[in-house]
Specification:
CATH superfamily: Divalent-metal-dependent TIM barrel enzymes
CATH class: Alpha Beta
Strand order of the largest sheet: 1-2-3-4-5-6-7-8
Shape: globular
Distance between the termini: 9 Å
Order of helices and strands: EHEHEHEHEHEHHEHEH
CATH architecture: Alpha-Beta Barrel
Largest sheet: 8 strands, parallel, barrel
Radius of gyration: 18 Å
CATH topology: TIM Barrel
Structural class: alpha/beta
């Protein structure tokens, strides 16, 4: 059975240990730790705090994952020194995951400068990203911390369509996936507008088919909701995503890894967290 967790940024004003306590009381069994500003980041998360968090996780029988930093880094940067710093920061998050006993690190892909009309920039940026990814996968093998590459709803990123995500996974034997369903939905709605071949296919059906293709390479699924126009991170049911074919595909592949509710921006985070897990349990028939 899949493990349901919540993204830690739902409670920015609390310590991570206190968040775990709250989530356990609300019926969750995992947490995805945001390893970046404004929560806990490199130089702002002491070894003592990490030990305390691991003890709290273990005391509640909680699973965890870590979301690698995204601000101020770019694994596809054309500046070699900047790429090295970016790799170092992601490695720090992998060390954090190992210290916490986490299941995985979720990784955002690199991105290119905003010049889509210069194809050579995208090609060279993609090569930079693939080189960085290989370095991190080597470190994954060394640390035992799997990497879940996440799809983004941004055309400047090197993993914004499901086809591209599948291609990357097929290129690296030990690469895993954090599938962000609503990110894929936003891109799917956009592609319906610009690609006649996609116009007749609901994005949810394409997401379901990607789940079947990726199978056990998926080790984390981000669930939230939006209206298809942008990435709103609402509670499932508050947007326009039809989760039925997606849940059916998850059942077909016997998905039993993490499901992370990546919800934020609520005026009442406690009430939202409680409502979200009840909605998702009903959605999954748990």
């Amino acid at each position: 059975m899949a493990t349901i967790g919540l993204f830690s940024t739902q409670f920015l004003n609390l310590s991570l240990s206190r968040i775990v306590e709250k989530l356990a009381n609300y019926g969750y069994s995992s947490i995805e730790v945001w390893a970046d500003v404004p929560q806990k980041w490199s130089g702002n998360f002491s070894e003592r705090e990490q030990r305390e968090l691991r003890e709290t996780l273990e005391s509640f029988g909680f699973e965890s994952s870590v979301h690698a930093p995204i601000w101020d880094i770019n694994l596809a940067s054309h500046i070699a020194g900047f790429r090295r710093v970016s790799i170092k920061q992601v490695k720090w998050s992998m060390d954090l995951a190992r210290n916490l006993g986490s299941r995985l690190v979720t990784l955002h892909p690199g991105h290119m400068p905003p010049y889509p009309f210069i194809p050579s920039l995208r090609e060279s940026g993609k090569k930079n990203f693939l080189d960085s990814l290989q370095t991190l996968l080597d470190y994954s093998a060394e640390t035992g911390v799997p990497i879940g590459l996440e799809n983004l709803p941004l055309g400047l990123s090197f993993c914004y369509t499901l086809d591209e995500l599948i291609d990357y996974v097929n290129s690296f034997e030990n690469l895993r996936v954090t599938l962000d369903v609503p990110h894929a939905y936003v891109i799917g709605k956009f592609l319906q507008l610009v690609d006649k071949k996609k116009a007749a296919t609901p994005p949810e059906d394409e997401i379901a088919e990607a789940i079947r293709k990726l199978g056990n390479r998926i080790i984390n699924i981000h669930l939230h909701d939006n209206d298809g126009s942008w990435d709103q991170h609402k509670v499932p049911g508050e947007g326009t995503i039809n989760f039925k074919p997606i849940v059916e595909a998850m059942k077909e592949i016997n998905y039993n890894h993490l499901i992370t509710l990546e919800i934020w921006g609520s005026k009442d985070p406690d009430k939202t967290a409680m409502r979200a897990i009840n909605v998702v349990k009903e959605l999954l028939n748990l």
